[in-house]
Amino acid sequence: MSGSSSQGRLGALADRWLPKLVLSPTLAASLIFVYGFIAWTGWLSFTESRLMPRYEWAGVVQYQALFENERWWTAAANLGIFGGLFILFCLLVGLLMAVLLDQKIRAEGALRTVYLYPMALSFVVTGTAWKWMLNPDMGLQKVVVDLGFTDFTFDWLVNPDMAIYTVVIAGVWQSSGFVMALFLAGLRGIDDSIIKAAQVDGASLPTIYRRILIPSLRPVFFSVLLILSHIAIKSFDLVMALTGGGPGNSSDVPAIFMYQFAFTRGQLGVGAASAMMMLFTIVAVLVPLMYMETRSAKRV
Amino acid sequence: MFKNLTVGRALVYAALLLMAIYYLLPLYVMLTTSFKSLDDIREGNMLALPQAWQGGAWGKAWATACTGVECNGMQGFFWNSIKMTLPAVAISTLLGAVNGYVVSMWRFRGSDALFTMLLVGCFIPFQVVLLPMAQLLGYLGLANTTAGLVLVHVVYGTAFTTLFFRNFYITVPDELVKAARIDGAGFWTIFFRILLPISGPIFVVCIIWQFTQIWNDFLFGVVFASGESQPITVALNNLVNTSTGVKEYNVDMAAAIIAALPTLFVYMVAGRYFVRGLTAGAVKG
Fold this sequence. Notes:
The complex is a heterodimer. Chain A has helices at about 1-45, 60-70, 70-100, 110-115, 125-135, 140-145, 165-190, 190-200, 205-215, 220-235, 235-240, 255-265, 270-300. Chain A is mostly helical. In chain A, α5 packs across α7 (about 165-190). The longest helix of chain A has about 45 residues, at about 1-45. Chain B has 13 helices and no strands. The longest helix of chain B is centred in the C-terminal third of the chain and has 36 residues, at about 250-285. At the A-B interface, α1, α3, α4, α5 and α6 of A face α1, α4, α5, α6 and α7 of B. Chain A: Pfam families: BPD_transp_1.
């Protein structure tokens, strides 16, 4: 009797401490590798670190250097162009495909598989494939020229004014199927009786989608925006593989800027400052979106 | 309804097929290009089938193509990626499972706040941790090693895996665990006897997600590994963007497919779970 009860007490004691003990390595890792490292990078961005890290406070010199760097502003503008168009087209293409696939389509499973497989690929692979297809000598341009349109040119990949748009093309190809999957899951989650009632009232199918179904996808819409803007701000591998940031620096993005200044040009301070700017951008975009998402989720 | 409008339905199918072609085209072009000879590529049309199917580019991509100074093809880097991905996936998934179990079933004062604190790790741009991480790996003697990359992927992957398991375990009825506790079952007994047996699907989802993420990673690979310890994504990028010599598009494409094969295979075999993982990670992530 007493043996089993003391065992029980011991067990209860273990059960009080075990959960905390189990969680603690991950928490410690998070404290060091996420919070500590952000603080460390933040500190570096206020020093005069160049090739080697230095830890004496130097004020905002690196941010000044960053903001006076034309290349940084090219990268920031490109992020705006790429991010905006990437999100817009992913939303449009993804929503359109979801609505079309929702029409009791035969072979829906096969089509979904086809739309989604790019998501399994690395951005480097995607970039490599599109780099080949978009190259002006032997790629799509030649295909169209061979068809008889001899004046056709499509040289975006090597055209400094247009190179960033090739990143949009490849990015949308890679990610729009995923957006489709999310919207389709949302559409399938809507109660059928709402649609039936609207049909009884004589509403046409397009009206039902425009007025009832698509508006009720609001929470999904916010999730999608959240993920897409996250992908856009972090985008690095796709640009590296597709254009390498070129021609020149014309398709540079902040992630490449950060990588090159911090790791190949030996300008740690500027690299750290640009990394902090990326963090601020993510916070500035994601926090309002998350706030709106939780609000709209509560309302539904 | 559309059922009677055959024209409408035909249009829907036409649009869907057109989209399917758009998605399949790059894969088709990659495959056919990889089997063409260089002359065939230069003279022929990108969309045409090879005049003569040749496997030479594949052999070269695997064994002799140059990825910088070295000219040993993708083979070594392929194994690097395997040696990096398997342990990183295993460790981060197991950690995620027990963490998810704690934050869903054994909540204590402050555990929700701690979980939120962990989740922040899913959202940060990794650029913000690269410089300190490079320093730390240097101190630990792990710079340019596969072990270092495993550490990095485990550290930054565990937030996601914890989220996956937590979202799965909160759907398990509390009564199950409460009843077991009254019967005297402890922390580990409940985990191994009650939760693990029903965790199959979430393990599959989580493993697939982690495998895809880690195999496809480029940023950590390019920053923390160099030369012989590089993962395959970095090697592929080096191979494609080496500016010396004749551009061998057939070799590039074969190498790209080699780099993509493992994740494509997983997608083909377990696509259902793959989608579920994406949506699960998305809904809360």
